[in-house]
């Protein structure tokens, strides 16, 4: 069955490790679109940090951001699908984060371009400092995050070194149980893990299903390409799930198709192999 909808993760998948969109990947996406395939970016990124790439690719479908918690029109900023985190649950998560002394960010402002609200960041978290410096206009520092969270935010986000984040993830899930979904993006090569705590109704797979329904596309006509744990829901939902060679071994052993790494234009290779051959 021909592919009619292509869902792409961004970091670790579409972009190189240096955050570059290669000419081959760009050309393959353009060719797919010219042949009638809809292309949607489905990312764990915040809306505003992914919006520029969607505009660069001139995609005319919604942007699925925050691991499926927020889907918006990139031009009008109209919110098309939103799964906020319950206020009480967000406050409970903050309490647990304080107990474990982890760096945490409250992602908020679903109606605008988005903002990152926090009390501060530990000096040793160099990766998070670099990220915040890049998006300084979106950063809001408050003296008390619990006091700030008096409404449902988009999500709570945590980042740090892989092993401590792994331990914190186990503890957070044990305490919050089925009240949250916890998505993990792990990059062992740079010792960085990002944990996203979201509403139980939010996921990349659920948002991909929504976009497909709006475009009249059946599940069997979808190809999804990803590289990390937070991509699993969309990889499993799609009729054809494709995993990057740079993904962790456990993802590559789950029965998905395999393409080259993000250093080797793996997205273009997948498009050429499964859409045009």
Structure described in brief:
With 277 residues, this protein is of the alpha/beta class.
Largest sheet: 6 strands, mixed
Can you list the strand order of the major beta sheet?
8-7-6-9-11-10
> What is the number of helical segments per DSSP (H or I, 4+ residues)?
11
The CATH topology of the largest domain comes to Rossmann fold
Q: Give the domain tally.
A: 2
Helix proportion of residues, in percent?
A: 25-40%
Radius of gyration: 18 Å
Uncertain regions spanning at least 5 consecutive residues: none
| CATH uppermost class of the largest domain | Alpha Beta
* Number of E strands: 14
Fourth-level CATH superfamily of the largest domain: HAD superfamily/HAD-like
In words, what does this structure look like?
The strands form three sheets. A six-stranded mixed beta sheet has the order 8-7-6-9-11-10, with helices on both faces. The model has no long low-confidence stretch (mean pLDDT 95). The chain has two domains: 151 residues, Rossmann fold (3-Layer(aba) Sandwich); 112 residues, Hypothetical Protein, Haloacid Dehalogenase-like Hydrolase, Chain: A, domain 2. It is built from eleven helices and 14 strands. It has 277 residues and is of the alpha/beta class.
């Amino acid at each position: 069955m021909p592919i009619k909808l292509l869902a792409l993760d961004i970091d670790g998948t579409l972009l190189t490790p240096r955050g570059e969109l290669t000419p081959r990947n760009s050309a393959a996406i353009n060719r797919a679109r010219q042949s009638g395939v809809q292309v949607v970016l489905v990312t764990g990124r915040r809306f505003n940090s992914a919006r520029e790439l969607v505009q660069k690719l001139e995609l005319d479908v919604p942007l699925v951001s925050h691991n499926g918690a927020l889907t918006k029109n990139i031009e009008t900023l109209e919110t098309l699908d939103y799964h906020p985190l319950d206020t009480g649950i967000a406050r409970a998560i903050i309490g647990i984060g304080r107990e474990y002394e982890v760096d945490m960010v409250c992602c908020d402002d679903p109606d605008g371009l988005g903002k990152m609200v926090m009390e501060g960041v530990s000096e040793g978290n160099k990766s998070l400092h670099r990220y915040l410096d890049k998006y300084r206009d979106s950063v809001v520092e408050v003296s008390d995050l619990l006091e700030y969270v008096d409404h449902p935010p988009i999500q709570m986000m945590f980042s740090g070194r892989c092993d401590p984040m792994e331990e914190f993830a186990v503890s957070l899930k044990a305490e919050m149980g089925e009240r949250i979904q916890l998505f993990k993006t792990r990059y062992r090569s740079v010792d960085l893990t990002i944990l996203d705590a979201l509403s139980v109704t939010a996921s990349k797979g659920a948002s991909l299903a929504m976009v497909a329904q709006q475009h009249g596309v059946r599940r069997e006509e979808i190809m999804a390409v990803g590289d990390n744990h937070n991509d699993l829901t969309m990889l499993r939902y799609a009729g054809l799930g494709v995993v990057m060679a740079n993904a962790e071994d456990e993802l590559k052993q789950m029965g998905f198709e395999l393409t080259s790494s993000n250093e080797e234009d793996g997205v273009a290779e997948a498009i050429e192999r499964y859409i045009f051959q």
